[in-house]
What we know:
Shape of chain A: globular
CATH architecture of chain B: 4-Layer Sandwich
Structural class of chain A: alpha/beta
CATH topology of chain B: Purple Acid Phosphatase, chain A, domain 2
Order of helices and strands of chain B: HEEEEEHHEHHEEEEEEEEEEEE
CATH superfamily of the largest domain in chain A: P-loop containing nucleotide triphosphate hydrolases
Strand order of the largest sheet of chain A: 3-4-2-5-6-1-7
Structural class of chain B: alpha/beta
Oligomer: heterodimer
Number of helices of chain A: 30
Distance between the termini of chain B: 26 Å
Number of helices of chain B: 5
Number of strands of chain B: 18
Number of domains of chain A: 6
CATH class of chain B: Alpha Beta
Largest sheet of chain A: 7 strands, parallel
Largest sheet of chain B: 10 strands, mixed
Helix content of chain B: 10-25%
Amino acid sequence: MSGGASTTSSPLPEPFAGWFAARGWAPRSHQLEMVEKGRAGRGALLIAPTGGGKTLAGFLPSLIDLTERPRPNTPAGVHTLYISPLKALAVDVERNLLAPIAEMKLPIIAESRTGDTGIARRQRQRVKPPDILLTTPEQLALFCAWEGARRYFEDLKCVIIDEIHAIWPSKRGDLLSLGLARLATFAPHCRRVGLSATVDDPDLIRDWLSPGARDEVDLVRGAPGAAPVVDVLLSEDRVPWAGHTARHAMPEVYDAIRAARTALVFVNTRFQAEFAFQELWRLNEDSLAIALHHGSLAAEQRRKVEAAMARGSLRAVVCTSTLDLGIDWGDVDLVIQLASPKGASRMVQRIGRANHRLDEPSRALFVPANRFEMLECQAAREAIAENAFDQETRRSGALDVLAQHIMGCACSEPFDLVALHAEIAGAGPYKDLSWEDYEAVVDFVATGGYALRVYDRFARIVRGQDGLWRARNAEMILRHRLNIGAIVSPAMLSVRIAAGRRAVPGRKIGEVEEGYLELLETGDTFVFAGAVWRLVAVTGTDVLVTPAPGEDAKMPSWGGSKFALSTFLAQKVRAMMSDAHHWRVLPDDVREWLEIQRDRSIIPGPDEMLLETFPRGQRHFLVCYPFEGRLAHTTLAMLLTRRLERAGVGPLGFVCNDYALAVWSLKPMAGLDFADLFDSDMLGDDLEAWLAESSMMKAAFKACALISGLIDQRSPKDRKSGRQVTFSTDLIYDVLRRHQPDHLLLRCARADAAQGLIDVKRLGLMLERIRGRIRHAELDHLSPFSVSVILEIGRQRAPGEGAGEMILMDAAEDLIAEAVA
Amino acid sequence: MSAAALLAETASQHPLGGLTLTLAGEAVVCRPSGALWVEAAQALIVADLHLEKGSFYAVRGQMLPPYDTAETLRRLAGEVAALRPEIVVFLGDSFHDRGAEARLGPDDCAALSGIACGRRLVWVTGNHDPDAPASLPGDAAETIRVGPLTLVHEPLPGAAPGEIAGHLHPCARVRARGASVRRRCFVTDGARMILPAFGALTGGLNIRDTAYRGLFRPRPLAAVLGAGRVHAVGWASLRDD
């Protein structure tokens, strides 16, 4: 064990010192430091690598305090509130926490409460609070909207936020920070503790966590773990030019699983998970216990896999980001990343899943699915070795989340306008919230925030004669509680086996997001939950399927990863590519590919952008390689298309991946002024005009409308149905845009779209970076680099704006064809 | 050949915008706004305005924008200005609920008066608004005939050719290029037609839904509203939601 004091002079009281000693352990220095912080009543952020006893370090001060406290005369409230981003994690920690409590026979009750907790237990927990309550951000928000919240939490001494690095930079994090601010009002002396994996800039998290200045939260660092051992699979089969499946490498992946005790196989999308699972079982001659875990599987199925994993009865789990976070599976000794990791920080997290309990290095194997990914995997590997991470930026709290929270406060107890503003300013992301914005949000909560003030008499919250604001009636409260949370889940469809000849819905095998099957037609086969199914029909909220064993499933195309390539990793990839000396770490075929690219086209310098033009078929192509991720590329392609239209070259379509984008047109583009074409002024009016109409903006608006409570995701009438949204938010968006373009929700949606969906900021930085540094190669035919993106043509959906009209025109042409046939 | 393909053969783009189709022998223009223009009778027909839908929900605590009536009437005024009809027929469910007329703001009342100026308004009654408007210009009727066409709110199975109705808020999910798009649409088999909802906040019901069963000959045509034009789309390109 690292950094431990000897057991004889242990600063831990009994029975803790004895408990450690009995196991042959010594407490680690950061665990002791956390105990000191607890005794001093200080807030703390603990940064320690996975496997460093982090969770126990978080709980130790509370366990000691609870053990040493005098028996209270009155029943005590909750002493420590532990919040985890994952439902499953709260369950898992309950297990890990209960073990020491039981072994030391501590007089402490610890219980979890999640969305899955039964009604009887919830009610009992309200009447008789446990000493330690383990829960999720959403449950805290529910507590905050409960009329008994103040009394329930008045004895609270400590809030622990686990995996804080994963929560804080999100709307869930915003909601959680507001909940923390509320708790601080109920229990002013409650201290805050954050537990985090290694991050680039701990101060950002301290700012977020601290009720005031960041130095109210002390930084505690664990000793760094052993450096992970990361290999990149150099497949004997050649690395493919394009694609995302890594099918070529499956036999080697299988061998790696066979050689490991237990492996986690991470993939980037659910389709990839299904595909890899299918492929591995095809090869599974030894019938190794290989399981599947992703967000579309039915919850009970996921729980089963988690339980089997915890028992150590699985050899491998193919999973998506659903298993990114810290469920403690000590037996995992290998993490395999299929297709590229996209970001160094996430990858470190994933690698940390291996050897959770040991001070051995974690082992990881990267399996690139194409040649650019080979570069990316190498870059990620080097970043991990250098301990370099993706950078985050400071977060400003979202106003739609604030609206939800304010409604919640009104549901709990009447509030004073000024006092609540002061309370909210104690939430990290809302420290700079202006009074104007705050009032606008309160007005929105009350009457929708419309300039046309016709709804005053229908207000959801009203100001009483005592000057305090409260929810108008019980129905408003009930509706709010049903709709708490900052995760907008897409409407889900149940996948059911079609029973009988009339194909009525039968047994449920899982759930899929609406739109997941968009690319499939009735009669098509697809893989889901590890088996092949034929799509029979979609009726209401049910997808009816029949088993189609042995059939070759149609693989709908997927856009690779939903995560964009991180800026940091992209930079490393560009640097590696431009440095021919660096190429020797790459396998022969990838090196040859770079050499041919150098001979036939250009290898750009690290800050340059390569732009190729060439004819192909009846079309002219422009391919450029910004390496800024699919989102930024899609935005760029939309804007370029508008400009190319104005330039009169007749652009016909475009396609993007994480590395490149290709536009094709009727007329040649080689003679264009590229400096002009890529001028950053495209981010002005063109962007505005495009964004307003874009489906991304409408999606962002929908999320804001749901989170803010403008419309309900669930209504009291149909609590269970999958399709809850009763209004078309697109129609609301259109009406609002015309009649009140500065409405609060449009502001929220614009901010969200610019940040998350179109990556405007990143695009802006890129355009600055390449100014004067565009390297144009005019070619006779496509280049080795361009193959990866050209091969995506036809596999991707028609992209965004204007696509709607194109689809309608095409469909109309089909009818004319039928008419004249 | 499907009903849709037969219709498509004779369909044409109207010079003022919209798709001209033949319905029970009469030329009608499906406008990109969702209104139907019967040139011979100089009649403009709009269905399912659902005025004051926003305020209806606001009363119940869902603060939808209070601009839907203004927006719907703005679009209607645009059609009236472009086509100068002699008669404007509201095909029922013009108001979202019985209390809607009383909630109309003064500006919206004025806009309606402006639309009524110099022409006749006919309010066909619907299930949401079974009573005639109390204080607005125009006449109420359960049905009205325009040439060979019969205008009613709710389509009836087995009705005679020439019926034009609303009520169902038809919408089409159109698929091509490996993607799909959902838009409001007219639906017709050449004998009868259902109009899309004209209201700004009125949603749609997919025309493949069972609610449309028995109303049309097999494989009717969807005249789908696009940007500035109406697209004739055949059944084969349509999908469930």
